[in-house]
Every structure is written in structure tokens, then in C-alpha cells.
Amino acid sequence: MKHCIEAQDRKQGAKAERLRNDLDMDRGFYRKADVPDHVHYITAFIVALIATVGIVGNALVIYAFFRNKKLRSPPNYFIVNLAVSDFLMVSTQSPMFFVSSLYKGWVFGKTGCEIYAFCSALFGITSMINLVAISIDRYIVITKPLQAIGWTSKCRTLISILIVWIYSLAWSSAPLLGWSSYVPEGFMTSCTWDYVTSTPANKSYTLMLCCLVFFVPLGIISYCYVFMFLAIRNTSRDVESLGSQMRNTTLVQQQSIKREWKLAKVAFVVIVVFVLSWSPYAFVTLIAWAGYSSILTPYSKAVPAIIAKASAIYNPFIYAIIHSKYRDTLAEQVPCLHFLNKRTRKQCVPGSNSGFLLRNSVLSMQSSGSKTTFHSVSSVFTGHTVCSGVMLDPLAQQAPLLRSSQSANQLMEKEQRHQLQLELNFKDYLSQEKPAISSQSLPGHSGNDLLEDTK
């Protein structure tokens, strides 16, 4: 009996000790930073602004890509995934951050802090690794176009997105499982992993997280874009070195690569903005990791965290400025955004740096028995852009269907034969009609007028 009573006393003592520890920890979660009240109110206003812009902007991105079928391509799945992670970031972070700022301290306890910090880590890491996936996708399409035929499928893209989320989930779950921990930071109104306390677990987690979630991904992104740029430059040089007849057959491939490069440039702007937003936060955590956490003030820890979380609001503006299809979709679907519509301007498609193709001509092709007549074709091939009011190559309309049923080599051969045939027909027409054209002038236009009309 005596042993039973002693065992019960020990159990009760251990339980009381755990309660005291939990109470002390909760008191730590509820402690306040030594900053003026107006700083908390300004922070609450900024957080509310980030929440409003981030939720509305990313919701519009998701809406636009689901409304426009032309935007539902595998590369754009990554952009939608980025918008989803940004939307969830501001949706889960801002309400708790805003309320705690009004109360001038964390008010949701240990469990709320862990939920907040877990969501912040999950969606922040997802955004970073998603940008790596976008860079790798663009790198393969531009530098290895033949391998990209199977790589850029819908199934592979969805698998890549799933891997991005699993990788992010692993890192964000580690502090919940004992590798470091989630604690309040900065003004004590938000939470993150404990990078300040100098323990082996905290220091190792901070170092590995910064390396494998920030610096290594940044190196991969840099590698991809350097070689994408070199591939574009080499392709342009190859086209310039070819003769005029071979340039036409290579033009289709170069235009395709430059279209992919245009999408890569959109992603590059997103990446630069994201890295600039998170770099101050990474720098602060490394200062603490190096043992200089004593020099960090609440301001030096809170301000970089707010800047990092604000990265979720920039992408919709980038798409609206650079991504023409996204901009046009919003203008069509959202009444208050009609000002984004720029369809009144001439439609332009990416071209190459060569000066080949027809220049300032007034001819188009019609079939009349065995005679082929050309009239009223307007095509201007500038150093950077081809602006055309008439589709010069009918095969381009069938390209999506051909790509889905034929290999890339077969498609290229068909395009080459078609371009060569068009060139031969045009030369035949010039040889037959040159006397007639030289003997009479076109009504209402001179050669200089035609030159101006096509500019």
C-alpha cells in the first residue's frame, strides 16, 4: 500500500511539473516586446493592406487562369500553384498577425503559434521551390527542345508540383517533431522557428534550412537562367550565319524558342522580386546562427519578416504588366478592369534578329484555276518583332493539332517544305508579273506610301 501511495505521489508531482513548465512556456508566448504602441498599430495597418491586396490579387490570378483555356498549359500550372501558395500565405498569416498587433502581443498561445509558423514555413518554402521548378522547366524547354516534348506534359507537371509540396511539408514539419521549435519573433506578434536560441538543434535546423531552401535553390535558378540566355544568344548567331534560304527554315524553331524565353522572362522577374523580399530575412537568421543574436533588435527581426511575407502580393502586378494573355483575360472577365485591354493595338508575335522574309509588299495568295495570284499581303519583319495583319503561314493555324499527333521532326519537315514552296511560288510570281507591275502604278499609293503603311 505504501509503495502504491508513493507511486501516485510521484505521478502527481510529475504532472504538476509538466503543468508548471507549460504555464511558463505560455507566459513566454504572451510576453510583449519593448516597442511603442503606435508601432504595433502601424504594423497592423500594413498587415491589413498586405492581406487585402494579396487575397484579391492572387484570387484574380487563379480566376484568370481557370477562365481562359489558352492559359491552361502545363507551364502555367506552376504559376497557378505559386498563386495558390501566395493566397494561402496571406489568408492564414494576416488575420492572426493583425489581431496580435492590435493587442500588442501574441494572443493565440503555443498551439496558435505553431499553426501560424507551420503555415508560414509551408507556403513560403513552397513558393521558393516552385520557382526552382519553373526555372528547370524553362531550362529544359529552351536548351533541350527535343527532350522537352515528353517533359512538359500535364502529368509530369502535376507530379513536379506534388514533389514541391512534399519537400516543403517535410521542412515545415520538422520543428513540430523536435528539430528546433516554433516561437514568437520580432514584436512578439508573429511566430517562426527559433533561430535566436543557441542550441545544437536550432543551429543545425537554421543552417540546413537556409542552405537547402534558399541558397541552393537560388544557385539552381541562376544556373538555369545563365544557360537559357546562352542558348538564346547562340540560336540568334546561328540564324545570322545562315544563308537567306536556310534562315526561313530555321525561323520557326527560333520563334518558338523566343516565345518560351518570353515566358521565362516573366518567371525571372517573379524570382528576382521573391529573392529580394526574402534575402533580408535570411541574412538576419544567419546573423543569429553565427552567434550575434544579441545585436538583433525587435525591429531588425520584425521588419524583414514583414517584407518577406509581402512577397505574396507582388506577382499579380507582375503578371498584369508583363503577361499579355493574363491581362486580356482580366479585362474581358472583370468589368472594373477593362482598362487593361490593349486589343486595339496591332497584334505582334516574337520574331528573330534576321531581316529575312517579305518586306513592305502588297501581295497575297489566291488560287484561280492553275494560276496563282498574289495580292494584299502585309508583313513586316523587324529586328525584334513580326507585326502582321494577315496570317502569312496557314500551317501555323494547324500547328497545335499537328503537335499533338506528330513528332517534332515531322512537324519541322512539313513547315520547311511549306515555307520553301511559298518562296518558290513567290519567285515565280515575280518573274511573271514584274513587267505588269512596273508598267502601272497602284491607285492611291506610291512605293513610299506602301512602305509607310506597313511600318
UniProtKB/TrEMBL annotation:
Keyword terms: Chromophore, Disulfide bond, G-protein coupled receptor, Membrane, Photoreceptor protein, Receptor, Retinal protein, Sensory transduction, Transducer, Transmembrane, Transmembrane helix
SUPFAM superfamilies in the cross-refs: Family A G protein-coupled receptor-like
Residue ranges of every copy of the G-protein coupled receptors family 1 profile domain listed in the record: 57-319
Signal peptide start-end: none
Listed transmembrane segments: 41-66, 78-103, 115-136, 157-179, 205-232, 266-290, 302-322
UniProt main location, coarse: membrane
Recorded topology in the membrane: Multi-pass membrane protein
Biological process, per Gene Ontology: phototransduction; visual perception
Pfam families: 7tm_1
Location relative to the cell: Membrane
GO cellular component terms given for this protein: membrane
Domain of life: Eukaryota
InterPro entries on file: GPCR_opsins, GPCR_Rhodpsn, GPCR_Rhodpsn_7TM, Opsin, Retinal_BS
The protein's role, per its UniProt record: Photoreceptor implicated in non-image-forming responses to light.
Family in the record: Belongs to the G-protein coupled receptor 1 family. Opsin subfamily.
Name assigned to this protein: G-protein coupled receptors family 1 profile domain-containing protein
